[in-house]
Amino acid sequence: MGGPSPADVRARLLPWYDANRRDLPWRRTRNPYRILVAEYLLQRTRIKSGTPYYERFLKRFPTIRDLAAGPLDDVLAVWEGLGFYGRARNLHAAARVIVEEHRGRIPQSYDALTSLPGIGPYTAGAVASIAFGIRVPAVDGNVTRVIARVFRIREDVTTGTVRRRIAEIAARLVSEDRPGAFNQAMMELGATVCTPLAPACPKCPLERLCLARAAGEERDLPVSSRSRSAPVVPVVFGLVTADERVLVVRRPRGRLLGGLWALPGGERSGRSEKEDLKGSIRSQTGVEVRVGPRWTHVDRTFSHLKWSGSIYRCSPIRRPQETDSVRWIPREEVMRLPLVPFHRDAIKALAGIESFESTR
Ligand code: SF4
C-alpha cells in the first residue's frame, strides 16, 4: 500500500475520535433504523442543516413500519427544504422493501444493504459498520480527502482507478474491533480538521504520518478535475390563480426537486420568458394562460447548477382539469402539499396582497 501502516493510523485516530467526537443524535444510538435514516439524510447535507430534519423525521416516523406505511407525500413534506428529494423517495421505498422482504429488520450484510434503493457503497459501509460492527470501509468525500493527503495521492481522485485505490486503502485501514468508530473517525477528521481549503495540520492526530504534510502539499491535494463552478440555467414559472385556487404540478421523478409539487414552468427553451412560460404550462397541464406581471425573481443555487429567472402571475383562460400530476386546488390546501420551498414562499406572499385575483 505504501505510506503509513494501518495499525499506526488506527492507534492515533481512534483515541483522538474518542476525545474529540461531536455529540450528534445518531451517535447516541445503535438502533439500525435510526442510523439508516441518518445516513440517507446526511448524503450531501451538512450536519448542522440535517440535524433538525433527523429529529423531525423520527418524530413523524418513529419506526421502519411507520415509514413503510406512510404516504410518500408525508415523507416529502417532512423532507421539504432539505433538497435532493430522491433520497426521501429512496428511503421510503427502502422501508417498504425492508418490511415486505426482510420482515421489518434492516439487513445485516453489506451486499443486502447495497441492494436497497438509494444505497451505494458509502451508505452500505456506514450502516454495516456503525449499526452492525461489520468490518467494511465507508468512503465519502471527507474520507477521500484524508486518504489522498495522508497517502499523498497526486492523481485525479474522480477517476475510476484512483477511486478503487482509495477504496482499497480504506478497506485495509478499517479497525477490526471498532469498524464503525473508525469510519466515523475518518469522516470526523475530514469534516473538522482536514478540511478542503484550510487543513489544521498542527491539530491533526495523523500529522506525523501524513505524506502530504511532510511534502508541504496538504493544500494541493486532493486533485480533482470536477469543475467547481455551477452553470446558470434560465428558468420561468407561473403562479396561475383564479377563484382562490392555485395550479400546481408534480415535478417528474429523476429531475431536480423530483416528486415535489411545484408551480408549472421550468427550464427556458430560448424564446421570450413569457412565450416559454405559456409553452411549458400548456405542455405540463394542458392549460392556456394569460401571463400577467412578474411576481418575483428566481435565484436559487443547487449543488450542480443555479436557477435564475422569474415567476409571473398568470390567469387560466379555462378551468384546469386535474390529473395525478396536475392539481387545481384551494390555496390553503396547496400549503399542505410537499412544495418546492421557494414556490411555497411565492404562494404564501399572495396572502399579503389585497386582491387575490389581480391578474384577471
Ligand atoms: S496532517 Fe494535515 S493534511 Fe494530513 S491528514 Fe492531518 S490535517 Fe489532513
Outline of this structure?
The protein is of the alpha+beta class and 360 residues long. Helices cover 42% and strands 14% of the residues. Strand 5 and strand 6 (306-316) form a beta hairpin.
Topology:
Elements: H1 6-20, H2 32-41, H3 47-60, H4 64-69, H5 72-79, H6 86-101, H7 110-114, H8 121-132, H9 141-150, H10 160-173, H11 179-192, H12 211-214, E1 232-242, E2 245-250, E3 261-262, E4 265-267, H13 273-285, E5 289-301, E6 306-316, E7 326-330, H14 331-334, H15 341-348
Iron/sulfur cluster (SF4) binds at residues 146, 149-150, 193-194, 199-201, 204, 206-207, 210, 212-213, 218.
Explain what you see.
It is built from 15 helices and seven strands. The termini are far apart. Strands 1, 2, 3, 4, 5, 6 and 7 form a seven-stranded mixed beta sheet that branches. Strand 1 (232-242) and strand 2 form a beta hairpin. The chain has two domains: 6-214, Endonuclease III, domain 1 (Orthogonal Bundle); 232-352, Nucleoside Triphosphate Pyrophosphohydrolase (Alpha-Beta Complex), CATH 3.90.79.10. With 360 residues, it is an alpha+beta fold. Iron/sulfur cluster is lined by residues 146, 149-150, 193-194, 199-201, 204, 206-207, 210, 212-213, 218.
